[in-house]
Amino acid sequence: MKQTLRLAVLAIVTTIIGGCQSDAETTPKVIHQQHTVAAETFSEAANELSASVNRVCRNYSNAALIDAQQAWQRAMQHWMFFQGREKGSENALALSWDIQFWPDKKNTTGRKLTQLLEQDVQWTATLLSEQSVAVQGLGAAEWFLFEHSELLKQPKGCELAIAVGQRITQNAIQLEAAWQSNPWQQLTPQLALVEYLGALSNQLDYSMKKLTRPLGKPGFPKPYQAESWRSGTSLANLKFSVEAMQQLYIAEGKGLDALLRSKEHFSTADRIALRFQTLLDSWPTEPSMGEMLTTREGYRSLLKISNSLEYIQIALQDDVAPELGIVVGFNATDGD
Question: In Å, what is the CA distance from 176 to each residue of 17, 27, 79, 322?
Answer without folding.
Answer: 36, 20, 12, 34
